[in-house]
User: What shape does this take?
Amino acid sequence: MRKNSKAAIVEAAITLFNIKGFNGTSIRDIAKKAGTNVANISYYFNNKNGLLEYCFTIFFEKYLHEIEKGFANLDSIGAIATLKKMSKNIIQFQSQNIHLTRFILRETSIDSQVIREIMSTYFVKEKYYFKQVFEEGMETGEFRLLSVNYMIMQLKGLMAMPFLNSQYATEVLHIFPNEEYFANKYSIEIGNWIDTFITKPLPAQKLKVVNN
Assistant: This one.
């Protein structure tokens, strides 16, 4: 990889933003970490805020792509399977991009003009997809009649916690969110949560047939 490559700069920035915070990281710090010079950062991103916006863009474009892949088969596989697929895609994506995910999740908890723009674009799209799945599930009888907004909030909390608190997960729980095993296991656990708290129980007579 060339030292002045765009990818090297982004990788260095994400690492430093996680360690020192956005405000605590200078352009010179990033240039030194990337093995390049400040002029290259200015060329690609104009300034540090431009680099921050680029990090948001690459994260949310890929994040929404994973949601859309899961959402695509809603009509054919139903709401339960779709919600599980969407959540699994998100967990796997975040696990494979743990440093970027951790930084983005931390930054989106801070009120700023950039975050307000994120809320009005990417998060609105995210809400649309989840809302469609939950409403479809309640209409078809797959899901309980619950508050869509509260279900979205609970699901997002489950999917964010291991990555936003990766140090706690690693040091206290001895769980490693960057590992493939974790992504697979945690996706199953979220699926169990969906089955237990969101999915509408089968009527007794149908349950008896299934058990037989």
In short: The CA atoms of residues 131 and 148 lie 6 Å apart. The mean pLDDT is 90. The radius of gyration is 20 Å. Residues 1-46 form a domain with the Arc Repressor Mutant, subunit A fold (CATH 1.10.10.60).
